[in-house]
Amino acid sequence: MKEDLHSDMKHIVRLHNIVKTYRQGKVDVHAVNDVSLEIELGDFAVLCGPSGSGKTSILNLIGGLDLPTSGKVWVDGIDLSTLSNTELSEVRKNRIGFVFQAYNLIPVMTAYENAEFVLNLQGVSEGECRERVMQTLKAVGLEGLEGRRPDEMSGGQQQRVAIARAIVTRPAIVLADEPTANVDSHTAESLLDLMQQLNREQGITFLFSTHDQHVINRARRIIHVNDGKIGADEEHQS
């Protein structure tokens, strides 16, 4: 796995002329249509647009969960198009944190075990793993709830576990797909407070896919997506 030495490392993500085409019957549908985009270190940015606009498709391409029909994606200086499936898994494991609207926690595992899961895959030592997990759970407001399983927690608490799991590995970027979709507005604001604090105090880069105005209002950068294309890309005082 080689890094692109010509990449400007201030850009955590670079998309160049990305196209993603799906076949529906006899028709080709462009979910992503010639998108070029850069996400900078420390960004707190939102891909916003209506359902079906292509924002989640763009997020999945950045996360290596899907591959483009054409064009190139770089994450943390690595050209994803050059990677084998095994190497792509390594990039997802070591450089990208994911937060999903459905939480995607492992139901038989406690909050602690869910948060430490990827660290175990990375081969982090037991002592360091415990220190990092406990610090991270405290940072997301779950101190004292380490032993609870998902079905013993509220939706907001489960999403906090998901955020802890995403950041405990110290990724280059956290990708959050509709992270407030399944919580009430008060909990959404609390989660956004948390992610803004992590962004400001720890410098964690966040990229959201959402149509939730609560999230859009908090972003420092708003990237509008419609019909698979990037429209306005504007700075915003959050």
Report on the architecture of this protein.
The chain has seven helices and ten strands. The model is unreliable at 2-7 (pLDDT under 50). It is of the alpha/beta class and 238 residues long. The chain has a single domain, classed as Rossmann fold (3-Layer(aba) Sandwich), CATH 3.40.50. A hairpin with a 2-residue loop joins strand 1 and strand 2. The chain is globular and about 50 Å long. Helix 4 (126-139) crosses helix 5 and helix 5 runs parallel beside helix 6. The strands form two sheets. Strands 6-7-8-3-9-10 form a six-stranded mixed sheet, sandwiched between helices. Strands 2-1-4-5 form a four-stranded antiparallel sheet. The chain has helices spanning 55-62, 85-95, 111-122, 126-139, 155-167, 185-202, 213-218; strands at 11-24, 27-40, 44-48, 70-75, 78-79, 96-100, 173-177, 206-210, 221-226, 229-235.
